[in-house]
UniProtKB/TrEMBL annotation:
Catalyzes the ATP-dependent phosphorylation of L-homoserine to L-homoserine phosphate. Keywords: Amino-acid biosynthesis, ATP-binding, Cytoplasm, Kinase, Nucleotide-binding, Threonine biosynthesis, Transferase. Pathway: Amino-acid biosynthesis; L-threonine biosynthesis; L-threonine from L-aspartate: step 4/5. Belongs to the GHMP kinase family. Homoserine kinase subfamily. GO terms for biological process: threonine biosynthetic process. It is an enzyme of class 2 (transferase). It holds the Pfam family GHMP_kinases_N. This is Homoserine kinase. The gene is thrB. Its main location: cytoplasm.
Amino acid sequence: MVHIQVPATSANVGVGFDTLGLAVTFYGECEVELSDKLEITGCPVAFQTEDNLIYQSYKYVLEKLNKPVTPIKLKIDSDIPFARGLGSSAVCIVSGVLAANELHELHLSESELVTYCTQLEGHPDNVVPALLGGLSASYQMGDTIFYQHYPVDESYQFVAFVPDFTLETAVARDVLPESYSLKTVVNNQAKLLFLLEALKTGDATNLDKFLDDDIHQPYRKKLIDEYDIVENIAKKSGAKGFYISGSGSTLMGVYNQSVNMEALNDSLKSLKHHWRALDLSVDYKGANVCHRTI
């Protein structure tokens, strides 16, 4: 039996649209073993089928390598919500790819793991940090996937504001314009460079300015009810920066001081939607695999 733990991710990180991704200390876990028939537990019945993304990812790797697809017994344990901008699909994909690699002793390299995960996800910005941890920039050029890790000062804390409503990535992408002015693109590019330095050094003086994106957030924030109210609550509680996690609906506050989480969650209770604040930090380990003997 193999136990797999994969961190949730927060993509884009403001101005790093479709490039940056951050692994955080919020996990999806599963136990997988070979079996004589497919058996899936620990998730809604609708996902206990061959269409389950973990199983589909497991199957994909084996088929790509012309290996027989042996059924598995899969037990899922995850509180990462679906379609909330926390990389739930990346967690499933990484879990399935690692399950295939471990159960069938494929000995895939890091590069091969990244490639299979990206092929399944369609882009690398969530799967790279989910697999490898930390803050990373990633970009696919043709068949080659480039990725680079960046340090985040230990003084930073991340608070995820997770609502009770979903926001599908396809919907969030449809609201974006087809083109941007040169000034907009240059501004975002410059902010990205300064953002990486601020995260590295722990200097949060201008963090809010460097996170202020003009490519996707002005359009997507309109799809997230109570965005402005939650942003105001976050900043009143000491957040030095604020951004949409992935395509939403989760919002992320960046702090450089301890946060009174009880008071913060109390302040969210008066809102129309049910929001919960999760106290997170950067996960630097990425996906973890442990073999267990029954």
